[in-house]
User: Which sequence fits this backbone?
């Protein structure tokens, strides 16, 4: 076998267009996402970056009248093919949402629920919970209160719990939709550190409205505007030598 | 800055207070009268005796048992059907004009006078299906009456479950069925339970539909199976109140106290179940 990890993308979209009825969410987006890389999607609000992110694990399926054209290939497979079960797909492509949304259950149950439904071996679950919480840098804070309600955690802890819950499914891709927007600066920096360690194991796509955050955590940046991809490339290059004038204007704060 | 005189604020404030005082006052007067008249007659004999034409010997035994029969059978028919209909309409049915038509009609049905359900019950269950004036006919009629209430309570409770919980569950690869079963239903359960108990309380207080289907007012035996004829508390009360003798009016008050007691304990049960559910989920 050839070492293909960084040559072939884990996930890619090819001329992806998402419409809500007649309204265009995003149009004609082609991006490739690679293993062990963090890709940041940036742009002003309403530019379609969250819409695009949700189309990567079919979270848009729940919105009525949504129409998708173009292709999303995950490990070479079209995820919108009729043979794909979206529930199974989402076990491989996990998601962390804008506002922390733990289940109104115990910390333990929050993480165990997904693996139990996916028929993971019962004996394996306690270890899985410890591993996930360690990876999410939350284990030391909650190891003595695993069986108390997750709603008693702080916002930042809840969000790390949601990350632990997502990685407990052993996904290969993690989608994060503005995961820090509801958090204070200290909790935000903990999550950003976490993203740096997680990227060794997962392909991470993060939506953020915070340009500094994109600069800090990502390897690749894609800039969206009005439903279109303006440009994408190495984060360093985008932030220092953007090719497009709109990117430069946005990054220098002329609009947005 | 001087506060501006606002007629609306004044209106809302004083009319609101007046409305509360008036309605609570009426309730208190009503309850006081009933308790004063009813409490002396509340002896064990009253609960264990059959009705009689001698007020001193009359009791509500058959009505009490009949009420429990109706309550249990109505619950058996209406809760599964109503809750499942609610789940189907809210979670599974496609959002099209058929669904909207059904929902509008269910909302309208909850406002139909109960006596109309009685006529329907008489025509369908008593005559057409030949269940006669039985507990079965009564319970089926009552089920029809409270089904819209249960369905509406269920859909409202399900609608109140936050989208973020559903998304979280879908995000870890749950199927729609798993999301409904493990997250939406437990979260909606307190609301559903409240609706169910309210609906059942209404069912045991109703008399018109049962009078229509021909429940008896003098039953000197205990019904043993669903096809026996029966009476219930509300009909017994109705019967006693309409008699000329004062003594029977006092009996009616006592029976009302018993009926109130049953309704109240059902509400307590509902509150207990709700807190149990919240605790089991790990509390809020």
Assistant:
């Amino acid at each position: 076998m050839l070492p293909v990890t960084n040559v072939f993308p884990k996930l890619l979209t090819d001329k992806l267009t998402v419409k809500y009825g007649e309204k265009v969410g995003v149009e004609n987006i082609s991006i490739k996402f690679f293993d062990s890389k963090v890709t940041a999607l940036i742009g002003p609000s309403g530019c379609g970056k969250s819409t695009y992110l949700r189309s990567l694990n079919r979270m848009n399926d729940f919105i009525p009248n949504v129409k998708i054209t173009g292709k999303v290939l995950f490990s070479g497979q079209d995820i919108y093919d009729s043979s794909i079960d979206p529930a199974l797909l989402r076990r491989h492509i996990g998601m962390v949402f804008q506002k922390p949304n733990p289940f109104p259950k115990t910390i333990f149950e929050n993480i165990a629920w997904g693996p139990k439904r996916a028929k993971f071996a019962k004996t394996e679950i306690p270890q899985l919970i410890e591993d996930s919480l360690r990876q999410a840098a939350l284990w030391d804070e909650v190891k003595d209160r695993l069986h108390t309600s997750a709603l008693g955690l702080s916002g930042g802890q809840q969000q790390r719990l949601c990350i632990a819950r997502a990685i407990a499914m052993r996904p290969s891709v993690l989608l994060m939709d503005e995961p820090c927007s509801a958090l204070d600066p200290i909790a935000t920096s903990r999550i950003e550190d976490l993203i740096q360690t997680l990227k060794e194991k997962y392909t991470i796509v993060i939506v953020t409205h915070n340009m500094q955050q994109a600069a800090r955590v990502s390897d690749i940046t894609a800039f969206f505007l009005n439903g279109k991809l303006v440009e994408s490339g190495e984060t360093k290059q985008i932030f220092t030598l953007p090719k497009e004038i709109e990117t430069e204007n946005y990054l220098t704060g002329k609009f947005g | 800055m001087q506060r501006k005189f606002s007629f609306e604020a004044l209106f809302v404030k004083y009319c609101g207070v007046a409305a509360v005082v008036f309605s609570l006052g009426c309730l208190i007067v009503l309850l006081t009268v009933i308790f004063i008249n009813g409490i002396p007659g509340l002896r064990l004999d009253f609960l264990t005796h059959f009705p009689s034409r001698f007020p001193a010997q009359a009791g509500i035994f058959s009505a009490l048992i009949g009420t429990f029969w109706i309550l249990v059978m109505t619950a058996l028919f209406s809760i599964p059907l109503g809750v499942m209909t609610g789940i189907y309409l809210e979670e599974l049915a496609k959002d099209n004009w058929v669904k909207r038509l059904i929902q509008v009609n269910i909302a309208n049905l909850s406002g139909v006078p109960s006596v109309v359900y009685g006529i329907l019950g008489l025509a369908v269950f008593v005559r057409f299906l030949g269940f006669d004036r039985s507990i079965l006919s009564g319970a089926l009629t009552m089920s029809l009456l409270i089904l819209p209430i249960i369905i509406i309570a269920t859909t409202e409770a399900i609608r109140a479950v936050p989208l973020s919980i559903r998304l979280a569950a879908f995000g870890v690869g749950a199927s729609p069925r798993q999301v409904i079963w493990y997250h939406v239903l437990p979260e909606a359960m307190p609301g559903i339970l409240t609706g169910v108990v309210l609906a059942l309380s209404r069912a045991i207080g109703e008399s018109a539909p049962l009078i229509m289907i021909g429940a008896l007012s003098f039953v000197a035996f205990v019904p043993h199976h669903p096809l026996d004829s029966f009476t219930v508390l509300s009909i017994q009360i109705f019967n006693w109140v309409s008699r000329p003798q004062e003594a029977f009016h006092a009996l009616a008050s006592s029976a009302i106290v018993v009926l109130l007691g049953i309704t109240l304990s059902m509400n307590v049960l509902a509150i207990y179940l709700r807190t149990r559910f919240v605790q089991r989920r790990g509390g809020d």
Summary: Residues 185-198 of chain A form the longest helix (14 residues). The two ends of chain A are 46 Å apart (CA to CA). The beta strands of chain A are 11-20, 23-33, 38-42, 66-74, 77-78, 93-96, 173-177, 203-207, 220-225, 228-234. Chain A touches chain B at residues 57, 59, 62, 64, 87-91, 94-97, 99, 101-106, 109, 113-114, 117-118, 148-151, 162, 165-166, 168-169 (CB under 8 Å).
